[in-house]
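Example 3.2
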Amino acid sequence: MLADNIAILAAPGKLVAEGSPVTLKTSLGEGFKVDVTLQESSSPEKPLTNSGHDILNVIRTMAPESYMESFTSSTASYHLKSRDPIVLQRVLERLECDREELAIASYDLRGTSMEDIFLK
């Protein structure tokens, strides 16, 4: 967080990438991620049927290379693989519009992190 310049090395000491955190995120990042919290069923007799794939299918209509990173009964995380602000806007507008139908309680947007860069 405090570095002005970062060097990423791979064994046996080979320089893989170098630059400021912003430069590395911009050049090596693969777009935004959307974390979704799903609604809980209000009735045990009527469970919600959203498997998380419904949301992914909606996202893929605007960002075709998107994939689901993780899924539990209450949360899902999607990697949009897009840096285009227009695509991002359309995805968020669609999630908001279809919120009830997709059983979305809330959602959050994250950019590329340095951890993502190191893992890549």
